[in-house]
Prior knowledge:
This protein has 18 helices and 16 strands.
Amino acid sequence: MPRKKSTTKKQPQKKVQAKKATTKKKVVKKVDLKNVDPKKEKKKTKGPVYTTLRGMKDILPKEGVMWQHLYHTAEDIAGAYGFSYIETPILEQASLFVRSIGKGTDVVDKEMYIFEDKDGSKVCLRPEVTASIARSYINHGMHTFPQPVKVWYWGQMFRHDRPQAGRYRQFHQFGCETFGIQSPVVDAELIAVAYNMLRDLGIETTVKINSIGTPEDRENYIVELVGYLRSKRSYLSDESKKRINKNPLRVLDSKHEQDKAVMEEAPQILDWLSDKSRGFFMSVLEYLDEAGVPYVLTPTLVRGLDYYTDTVFELYTEDDEGSQSALGGGGRYNGLVGQLGGEETPGSGFSLGIERVANILKKQKEELEKQEDYKPEKPGGIFFAQLGEQACKRSLHLIEELRRSGLRVYHNLAKSSLKAQLETADKLGVSNTLILGQKEVQDGTILIRNMESGIQEVVDQKKIVNTVQKLLAK
Ligand code: HAM
């Protein structure tokens, strides 16, 4: 029969083909294994390995405790001084910052992450948040709220700067802004909040302070300054030469050594302040004296953003090499809300650069760990270990009970070996571990193990919350 014939004929053919295919495959595989770098091979099959963009970084779990500590310190101090939390979008209309920070500043001219939205409008990732909050103040009619309006914030900012130590393209700021009150005590309070927060964190800073007066004071001063700079042009750096016409105030705080020498003899803005601005500034300093905040009068301090009027300040700390880096800065901006289309409203504020603060704390911790008598701080909380299926199920109930009473419970319910779980508890550094086995599930008890001595105590499961609370309070 033709069918049978064809089947019998095909079968051996198939086998041969299959054999050939297997042999072929084997040969190819052998060659591959010999010649292919496994890393490259992995890349080929899984696609490119992604990394963060230049100047941006991940905050890893091991840094989490410090970042949370920083956030809570900021939250506590801002709350204690009566500031309410505000959050504005990361993406804003680009012109918001061009108008407020000003053309001719580094931030606007060089550092904005600016791009076209789908409707063709220009948007940008916020380089700072003071202008956004002024926008929000106008949009939500905050001038009708009881004044002053005091707000605090925490979030990411973006500046396309050349990345270097302490300078990133994405960074976090914590800051406070006070709107609606034209009083020197507001400026002093803001400086005190920034200074005291850093001191609470164990960071001593120097507050550099200056007044740049009203725009009218500045206009007169700039005429004088430009005249002086032109007379010293040949001694200035190329960057400062360019700035004489574009942004002469920035020549004052130039980082170039040759410019610093020229600036020593430059006319000082304090001599050009109106009586009103001078009086205001003197009062700020008096309030700072009262608040116990030390400061250094710095006539060359002008800040890099155009919206400031009167008080400007920066908080500095010295790094290991003795060079200074600004942990934060701020000042008064009486014209900002009006300039953005709102009613003329006084305002003042500051921002701290959180990465810079975190870097200092990290260094301090590393120094501490090097000391011989250093003992790592025990994390507040308890480890929960379980053995066997029944114990694992019961654990979920007990862990929830502990958590509801406000206790922190570390665990790894996916692990069944007691040894492995105790090792994890040890690595975490907790002082006690709860152990629930088959026997304990049946008789309604649980073991509490002191991780240092290894001594274990049997406790009634009903008393577990109370017992753990007492243990952790010790
Ligand atoms: P700012 O001086 O431009 O002021 O920034 C404040 C702080 O943010 C700096 O002192 C620094 O610690 C940190 N910071 C700035 N740029 C970077 C960067 N590229 N990488 C890491 N950290 C950086 C302002 O932003 C104003 N909005 C402050 C203010 C609030 N004025 C009134 N209210």
